[in-house]
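I am writing to request your help with a piece of structural work I have in hand. I set the record out below, with my sincere thanks for your time.
___
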Amino acid sequence: MILDGKKISAVIRKNLKEEVKRLNDKITLVVVLVGNNSASKIYVRHKQRACDEVGINCEVIKLDENITEDELLNLINNVNNDESFHGLIVQLPLPKHLNANKIINSIDSQKDVDGLTVINQGKLANRQKTLIPATPKGVITLLDHYNINLEGKKALVIGRSNLVGKPLALLLLDKNATVTIAHSKTKDLEKETLNYDLIASCVGIPNFITSKMVKPGAIIVDVGISRVEGKVVGDCDFESLKDVASYITPVPGGVGPMTIASLLENVVESYKEMKGLL
């Protein structure tokens, strides 16, 4: 069965639009874009359009590539202290002269709708209420929608980033799955994958996971996204896997739309937390 993220995200966005209307206030997300990275510009436009759709105000602050670290930290501090701003994203990657870890952790954890600060990551690891990174949050929401019971299942997450791999592994653990994290240094990965009931690939290598690597009936979550000859493809060879897997996310139309919907949820959640509505 295909896990239709596009369909489920549309329902989430519709509900969010109604909620934002009920709240009857100006909810604002600030996105800081440093430099001229073409992929970053595309991602920011997607966020703007999604915000517009549900009635969230999205303010994009475009900064010169050569901005100093102190100037950027000062800007973030101003946004942190402004109660009219309810969410803050610093679009990654940043130019090499900027310390991304220092920049991200200067964001007020209550406004950290990407869930990347050590405070929010630590709360997630300790199973405390927090803002969860949008992609893993979207994956779990999608699996929940299709009533996929993960208890006791062996799950393999391929990728160990703070944005996707690690938090997804923690969320799967919370669902009582038995979780393994694989990465670029994992030996015999092609054989290892055959042992798992769920495989979530987050590596960004086109068609990396093939039908030979997956046992019949496995659940395939494709988080990767690449462009090959003008076509958007995922980490998983969808055509060869769709008849082998019990559930599979397509690319596009799977995890991607759920990521955007989950980010919007985080912005509204941040607003409600700031207003004492949670």
